[in-house]
Amino acid sequence: MRFLRRIFQALALPSLFLALSGYFIWHAMHGERGLIAREQRVADIAAARAELGRAEAEREAIERRVTGLRGERVDRDQLDERARALLNMVGRDEIVVPYGPERRLYQ
Predict the structure, then answer these.
(1) What are the phi and psi torsion angles at 83 (to 5°)?
(2) Which strand (E) or helix (H) includes residue 92?
(3) Cα dihedral sign for 53, 58, 61, 63?
(4) Predicted local distance difference test score (pLDDT) of residue 106
C-alpha cells in the first residue's frame, strides 16, 4: 500500500502540471484569441481593406463627376449629359442606342 501511495504522490504533481499545460496549449491554439482565430481575423482585415479600397475608388469617381457640376466653372458636357438623363430627352439629330441595365456605362 505504501508503494502505491508513494507512486501516486510522485506522479500527482507532474500529472497536474501536464494537465494544466495541456489546457493552456489547447486554448492558445483554439481559444477565442488563439492562433487559429488570429488567422481568421487577419483574413477578415484583408477583406475589409479591399472593400475599403473599392469604396474609396468609387467615392473618388463620384467626386470627380460632382466637381464638374459644381463651382465657378461648370463642365457643360457633363451638365448636358446629366440633364438629358434626368429629363429623358435627346436632340433631333441624335441617335439613341439602348442597352440593358446590366451594362452600365460608368462604374
Answers:
(1) -65, -40
(2) none
(3) negative
(4) 59
CA angle, 50 as apex, 29 and 64 as ends, to 5°?
160
- pLDDT value at position 54? 96
User: Phi-psi region for residue 21, left (φ > 0), alpha (ψ -120 to 50) or beta?
Assistant: alpha
Of 12-16, 33-37, 62-66, which range is least confident?
Answer: 62-66
Query: What's this model's pTM, rounded to 2 decimal places?
Result: 0.50
CA-based angle 60:63:64, to the nearest 5? 90
Phi and psi torsions of 88, nearest 5°: 60, 50
Three-state SS at 31: coil
Give CA–CA dist 51/30, Å, rounded.
28
Cα→Cα distances 95→73, 89, 91, 98, Å? 29, 11, 8, 10
Cα separation, 12 vs 20, in Å, equals: 12
